[in-house]
Amino acid sequence: MLFARSGSILTLLGGFMTFRSYLRGRDDDYSRDTGRADQLPFRAWDPFTSRAEAERWDVDARKWGLLFIVFGTLIWGYGDLLFPKLR
Q1: Distance, C-alpha 74 to centroid of its chain
Q2: Which of 65, 76, 79, 83 has the fewest C-beta atoms lying within 10 Å of its C-beta?
């Protein structure tokens, strides 16, 4: 029962990962133009490489986020059928 419910958390994490660029302020004009949206956590901001790294991380996060959403939805929907004897 709890295993099936863990799929909802996985789905939410996938949703956050899919919209990473929006959550870090990529659509905000001020953050995008000043480079604040391209700042990586715990690193110094480099105007020459930070934007490319942030975009690469966005693409990777989007791929992993979609996988998390798919597998989380499958676990959420069919997780109770995997272990029927444990109920």
Answers
A1: 17
A2: 83
**Residue whose tokens read 């929907």:** 77
Nearest-angstrom CA–CA distance, 42 and 32: 19
Residue with tokens 């997780």: 79
Q: By C-alpha distance, which of 65, 62, 83, 56 is closest to 2?
A: 83
CA distance 23 to 47: 20
pTM: 0.74
pLDDT mean by block of 10 residues, the chain; 87 residues: 86 90 75 71 70 83 94 90 71
Coil/strand/helix, residue 35: coil
Decide: helix, strand or coil at residue 83. coil
